[in-house]
């Protein structure tokens, strides 16, 4: 204790608690102020109740002693912040010679954890120049991960954490896995471990502990999180294969057994996993399904996302099993049932793997998907497909190249009437079609200056579109603007998932607003009153009978009134358009989902609203 305080304490003028607190503000001691940062006490005047402190941002600051007691907190001389006051040059040298030690010292002074933003605030400008900090931090992060002394998060908003000093590097990696709060974080920790497996060759106990933890975690989460559970087991098996003398314990959950038992849930579970991990899992299908493995892969092909589609195709091609997949895709194209991801793959690989699959049917399938998605409610699902059609300069030419004249003209007509594209995009796409098939040029020449095609819609569907547009303009766009502003405050925009997500949603909202405004401007509402029943028209109920005498009834309604469960057809749909202008007694040929053509004869036509 400072001699001046000892005298006051001995004389009974202050008590022990006050003496202890005052001793923390004695000359030569360090303290921390919220606004001025760390400081060193240089002098005091106990009778005058004054203290002088050299702060980082305010040197020679004289404060009332009582105020200093209330507004500062004691700092140990070994604290990083205290060293910034008196040993700044030493810290600057340490940042260059041993950045790991510098960061560990800083974390230890902040309770073992702090965010990257807080770390940058502490170091940038003082210890490391602001211009050099970003480059220094990228290098320091790599060194920190290699050292295993600090847990470095993948997201900037998550905190850095100082590990316990008595852990081996292998134990530190296992600790990361065990401390993960969710399965995705566990999977990331496991991926990091697979990159440092050599650390476990000298620490088999840590490896056995890790394998047991993976097995228990996967088994507990199979029902609610099948995808991450498969990811964990696949990474575990990769680790085991890296050690020649290691085998899984007999009681361990096997990846092939889990795949076989969860066959019906695999498509949803695998969608979203990294491509490399999906590939590793697909390679287990022969062990899981035996002779059926190709059938199972073919069944889930169009349901596992972009990454899965590519990896399944590569695997089947490498193993000489493309025939069954090709047959499946050709059939799906003919039925117009092929999904977006598979269709994009067929187009991208049309000159190589998918050369035997790519045909004129691709064009009709693309337009069907775009139109159906456009008329449905909810977020767009075919944005990438639409972008590919615009970005791939040769695609349309390849599609119409194999068509006869009538097919090319029909395709061009559908393309010009497709409500998905703006007028400018439509002209650009048609120019490519005409370049490949000059016979289709008459479609554009005959169109002249005619305005965009009018849409006939029911009043309820029109009001629904208007309500959606109003909600987007009044509520969703303003809220998205706020979300972007908030997310921007989270830090580095290059690593800011919340900001990227909000900006992506902004693009969707603006595109959707433009689409709705265009569609509403083209729409003419109707109640289908007194529709002309001399032939099938919009607003009519059509009864048909097939060759076997089975009767079927459809209702042909407005552009946005499709409801398959009620047998209600939009007049823009392929089936609805086939019925239009047909009269009683005429025959209509309809192709079902199995590519079988059925003939229907129109028995009667009635008005929906007489």
From TrEMBL:
Pfam families: GreA_GreB (PF01272), GreA_GreB_N (PF03449). Keywords: Elongation factor, Protein biosynthesis, Transcription, Transcription regulation. InterPro entries: GreA/GreB_C_sf (IPR036953), Tscrpt_elong_fac_GreA/B_C (IPR001437), Tscrpt_elong_fac_GreA/B_fam (IPR023459), Tscrpt_elong_fac_GreA/B_N (IPR022691), Tscrpt_elong_fac_GreA/B_N_sf (IPR036805). It comes from the Bacteria. Residues 535-605 form the Transcription elongation factor GreA/GreB C-terminal domain. Residues 461-524 form the Transcription elongation factor GreA/GreB N-terminal domain. Coiled coil: none annotated. GO terms for molecular function: translation elongation factor activity. This is GreA/GreB family elongation factor.
